Each structure stands twice: as structure tokens, then as C-alpha cells.
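Fill-in record for GTP pyrophosphokinase.
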Amino acid sequence: MTEAAIEKENKEIAQQYKELLRISYQTLTDEDKKLIRSAFDTAVDAHKDQRRKSGEAYIFHPIAVAKIVASEIGLDATSIAAALLHDVVEDTSYTLDDLERMFGETVAKIVDGLTKISSLKKDKDVSLQAENFRKMLLTLNDDIRVIIIKIADRLHNMQTMDAMRRDKQLKIASETLYIYAPLAHRIGLYNVKTELEDLGLKYTEPEVYQDILTKIKESKEEQDAYINEFSKIIQDSLDKENLNYEIKGRPKSIFSIRRKMNAQNISFDEVYDKFAIRIIYKSDQANEKFLAWKIYSVVTDHFRPNPTRLRDWISSPKSTGYEALHITVMGPKGRWVEVQIRSERMHEIAEKGYAAHYKYKNADEKEEQGIEEWLNRLQEVLENPTVNAVDFVEQFKLNLYSKEIFVFTPQGDLKSLPKGSTPLDFAFSIHTEIGTHTRGARVNNKLVPLSHVLKSGDQVEIITSDSAKPNINWLDYANTARARAKIKSSLKDEKKQIAEEGKAVLTRKLRAQKIPFSEKTVNELVAHFHLKTSLDLFYRVGIGKIDNQALKEFAASRSNALVSYIKRKISKKPEVNHDLNKDEITANYDQLVFGKEEDELGYKLANCCNPIPGDDVFGFVTVNEGIKVHKIDCPNAIQLQSNYAYRIIQAKWVDSSQQDFKAVIKLNGIDNIGLVSDVTREISSNMHVNMKNINFESDDGIFSGRITVVVKNNDILTKIINRLKKINGIDKVTRE
């Protein structure tokens, strides 16, 4: 580089530094400025010999990240310093100890967190990728600012990705849409989230992005004219109320237009709410609420509101701190328009998230406290880091993007839950103990099933019982990550307990067959029953799926040397062995069941999406070909579900070797007092039995009854029938 070029670059660096201080959202003290200057000088020195792929000096990247942190996210001087230094330890000769000595423990800790994230092994394998994200999210425990600066770093990388190879662009953009945009959304950084999503689309679907961008530019003039027409109608009325306000248009983001076009299978022109109108008013905090509703009444005097689209986040702010009043009204030319009503304070919170929220909440209270609050909410997702990494990230995303509902406890406290939550989710959100001992629920004083979907404004009361415990069906009713993780953990513990009992039973049964209980025998049994782990074997013995008869067959095949030799050849020993000592009971999804009652019905797999065992699926009752099974995300799913909803039937894959089955027991005898309670006590005292339906009739002293039970296996059913026969007054017990 020529001397003139170097001088020009140095001038630009100095210019950028001044701008960084000028655009900082927080008011910087002299002490803050000193810290930022020192971090800036260190970063310039550390990166002096480095260049980016585009050819510019590397130092422009940390400065740009610091500017995003300072102005768009609005964090404090500590964060700005950490952003300037975020690549120093990873890329230069400076060490973490150097930074701690120069800038103190907090800055060093944040930089360390950022370095850890960057050094995670990048791989195309989704499970490794998910594992990396999980590790990244667990660094939240150290300091939330790590993630916030990481989001700023990612935003700048996305803004400057043109010089990269196409495959790299695609990888980084997909990763951004996969986790960084949802994270920004959850922290309340809506502007950053929108930009990340739009840039993500720019690189994952460039043609679509350009097409929508062009159409937005073409229709901008028309939209501006529409906003002016809308504003004129209400301006006079607002002015009469002596309000200090401004009306702005807000175009919908490219990404959200694309999402709507996909979800509703419509063209760009058919997206009716491509823009919203914002009314931002000046107010002191005491009158904010009053003025918002005053503006609401002015707008609805002129335009008819859609009553189902009112969103009041002023009375109940979102968990990100977002406050506003959203109404959708029928505007001029018969178009639906979303009107957002917010004060200047609310607008700042919407733009900056937590930084603004806590600046306004209390000038003395640092934003860390707000961040603490958010961190506690995230904790529930991070509580169970033992689950499969892909599930973990999927659940995490589910929690990040979920819309909120607000429900009341019996005492009248307000609780925020993700949309689609059930009483089980509510129970686990209060306390794990309440969740695991849930027996039933009342919503607005009425008993409801645990699968009941809660709505905003519901009052929810959980009925608990010491003897109640989670069962596998609960996973169909629970939607939040916390509830699902706790249920899975509880079921896993129960299965392990059954497996322990099964191990003891197996030892006894093998002794009776004169077979030693050893690792070799266990390996042979696992191979014989086509299982994956020894725990699978013990569990199935525990629930009676592998009974005496099955073990006798094993003993017979074992004593036949030829059969045994062939078996060994067929069962590819090494494949079985490598999972053998896994500390889990695996599921082998090999059977489809349909409807709420989980019936086994005939079906065909649809060719359009070729579902495989374990996929999320639904059944579609065809006219000539019986039930066709489609994946939930099948290209034809939306059309089938909207046009033929009455033909859709619930379906799911289950593990037939762990599956319960239904049986109906018929009884008759002489009616006497207490007979019904004797019968029900006998059934309910058996651990592995669940009563689904019960019906008793008495006619002139003779009693008859039908009981539907769900049992693990035939042995248990036979035991129950034999016990019922012994009850005084029972004459006959048969299986229907």
C-alpha cells in the first residue's frame, strides 16, 4: 500500500472512532470514554497487520461491531470495549491474561466467552452444528452480553459477505436464520432480527429476495400515498385532542412477506398487510396508557377495527419488555391496515430492547438486572442439557419464536406462557413438583383435559395428587421445552427403575432355564430380540414384553449350535455391541397408530413425501385407497388440511415393543354394597394398568359391568382377571 493510502485509511479509522462515541445510546462518562479509547488502541495495535477478504483493514470489523452494540443495541461502555476486543485473543498475540490485566475481569470474561464460541468446530453435520449451538447457549450462564455481542458480530458479517465464496455465504446465512435471528427476536432486538432475516434470505434465496425487493420499491410510491391518505383522515381528530404525535409507515420485511407468501400460498400482490402505520406520541409515563387508548378511540371512530386482531401489550407487556397497542382496521379502498400505537418511550424499547427498557425503568438501576430477569427465563430451556442436541436446539427455537399468552393463577397473579400451552405447561412453569404430580386441571372453574389449549385471560388451577406421575401421553399434551424436558426425564427415571426390576427378574428366569447371567448371555439376548442396549432388554423383561415363553424359545435356539451359529452370522455382532452399554432405553419406531385412541389401522405411505418411521405424520382418509400417511411438512399438507379437514386423522409412530394395548373386561355377579369399589380398587392397585372406561349396571340384584383397561401385556391382563374372579359376589369374568 502507498503512504497516501495508509494515511487515508488511518484518517478513516480515527473518523470511525469519533463516530462510535457520538452514536452511543448510553451517556458515556469520562471513565467510560477512557475505557473505550484504551480498548480501541489495543484493538488497532493487535490487528495492525490483518486484512479482511475484501482487502480492507481488519480493524474496521471490530469497530463496526462496536458501533452496532453502541447504537443499535444500546449497551454500555463495558460491552463496547468487549466488542472492540472480541477477536483479539483468537487472532493475535494478546492473551486473556493481558486483557484481564488491562481492562478488568468483566471485559476479559466476555471476550473469553466470544472466543469460545468462535473456536467451536464448524461442521456441516447438523447434529454437530446443534451441539455447537448448545455449547454457545450455555455460555449465557457466564454473561448474556457474550450472546448480544455475538449477534452484533454476526450482523456485521452478514452485511459484508459479498466477497465470500457462495458455499460459505450459504452456510453462514442458514446458520443465521437457524439460531441468531430467533435469539435477537427473543432479546427484543426486533430491528436486528429483521435485518438478519432479510440478509439471510438474500443469500439463501437470492432470486426470491431480489424479486420481492424490486416489487417493494415499485410499490413504495403507492404505499406512501396510501399512508398519507390514511393519516389525513385521522390527523384533524388527533390535533383536536392536542396530542403531540407523528405518523410513520412501516414496510413489512422481505423475509416476513416471503414467509406469508409461502404459508398462505399467495402472490406478492395478495399479501394484504405489507405495511403498518405507527402512531408515536409524546407523553409522560403517568398518562401513557390513557393517551394510547384515546388514540385508539380516535382511529376506530374513523376506521372499523377487526375485533380479533386487537393486541394490548400495554396492560401486559411481552417478556422482552415490548409495549404497544396493535389494532387492525379497515382502511381506505377496503384494505386491512395494522396500526401500532406507542409512546416515544415504548418506541425506543421496541427499537433497542432491554437497553432502553431499563434506562427508562430506573435511572439508577443498571440494565444487568433486566438481563438477569431474561436469563432466568432462558434458564428453563437450558436446564436439561442432557437431551439430544438437535431436539435441544429445535425446542430452544420453539421457545424463542413463540407468541405469548397471559393466564391467571387461582390467586389472580398473571403468568406469561407461549401460545399453544396447555395446563401441563402451566403446571411445570410454576414448579416441577406441581407438574409431575398433576392429576387434573380446572380452567375458569371447569374441569378440562390436560390437552386443553389455554387462551389469554384464562384462570388456571392445577389439581395435584402424590400418587400422580407423568405418562408417555403427556408428551402429546405438553408444548414448552421445560415441561417436555421434565416429563422425559421423569419417564426415563421410571423406565430405569422398571429396567432394574427387570434385571432381577431376568436373572431368576435364566437360572430356571440353567443359563448363567453374564455379559455374554446378555449380548446374545439383545441380539436375539433385535434390541440395541442391555437396558432395552431389562426394561422389556420388566414390563413383561419378554415373557417365559420368549425366554424358553431363546434357550432352545441357544442349545441348537447350528441355529446359534446362523443367528450370530445374521445379527452382525459388532453393530449390536457398540451401543450395548448405553445408559438409555431406546425407542424403535416401527408401528403407526391412529386417532386419540391410538388404534392400529391399515394404511399406505404417501409417495409425495415418503414418510419414514419417527417422522411427524398425519393420516388422510382417501376415497378409494384407505388411509394415506403424509409428513406434517408435506408439500400437499396445507391443501389437504384446509380443504378436507374432516378427513384428517391423527397419526404417530410408536415402539410396538413398548406399546400398551387396550382390552375390555366383562364381569357379572350378585350386586352387593361395595362391589364396585372392590373391583376398581383391585384394578387401580396394579402399577402397570390404566382404566380408560367403566360402565356398571344393576338389575334386580344382578350386576354386570364393562371395564376398558390399558395394559403392557397379556400376562398383566390375565393376572387382573384372576384377581377379579376372587372378589366376593363376582360370578364370571371374561375378556371381550
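KEY FINDING: Residues 120-126, 363-367, 573-578 have pLDDT under 50 and may be disordered.
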